[in-house]
Amino acid sequence: MDLTVVWAAIIALGLLIYVVLDGFDLGIGIVFPLFPDERERDLMMNTVAPVWDGNETWLVLGGAALFGAFPLVYATVLSALYLPLVAMLACLILRGVSFEIRGKASRTKHLWNLAFIGGSTGAAFFQGISLGAFVQGIPLANGEFAGDAFGWLTPFSLLTGLGLVATYALLGCCWLIAKTEGDLQRRLHRLLWPLTLVLIGFIAVVSIWTPLQEPNVAARWFSTEWFHRMVPAPFLVAICAYLMRRAARDRHHTRPFLLATAFVVLGYAGLLATLWPYAIPSSVTLWQAAAPEQSLKFTLTGAVVILPIILAYTIFGYWVFRGKVRHGEHHYH
Known about the structure:
mainly alpha; two-stranded antiparallel sheet; single chain
């Protein structure tokens, strides 16, 4: 068993779960400005109040796993993307504080609404910027970061930042459709297809632009073997778009969220296929970046215990708070 690949798979799975779970609750903050009624906003926040803080467990897990299994990547990425990552964490803190205080505020509630919107949108945007900067590649010299503090700020990273905001907005909209009913749900269904079109547009532009960032990526993308392997992807995206259009038209409750998740999985699979086998694009492979085998074995022992526990309480939490959320229901928040 190749422990390096096992750890890469664990980290990749953890990040995917984070994007889906924290993506939809950040997405609620992104679509917040489109629903100015305070009672509706209270209801929207109550749909994620029992689970939102647990969703961020996966971000912590991903960071800790990266530190333990791929310390070179951890050190390099944090050095190269220090500013956007700190900005992302500041936005997450602002969002968390606004989430808690907004429910108790009266005169300042509008300010905490703005903080919730800004924190949610900012966190999504800086996550997308960090992703775009990582895909572009990180300059190294003697195994250390050799770029400047603002090397992450490029047109491509700004595009991926906006693309992730659109992704989270769609996830948030779909989650709210599954958890609400009545007039609010009808207006969310009307928002569903425009958000899907925006996301498809970002998928198309990023897919075209990505191979232009690195010569090695372009060579791989246009090789016969890779092309044949990835040619089904556009058709799968088109199928998901068609099914999303039907779900919006038929006002289905749960299907939109499943399809939005499918969009995320397809995009994520394309990203992993583009990066493989590099831990840092086009410069350091997974095996070059991995910790010593004994370290990988030791940390994997802990992961075997911790991961099932995290999965179990995550699934249990969503199961307990399943179903629709309605006005007037008592809530811990």
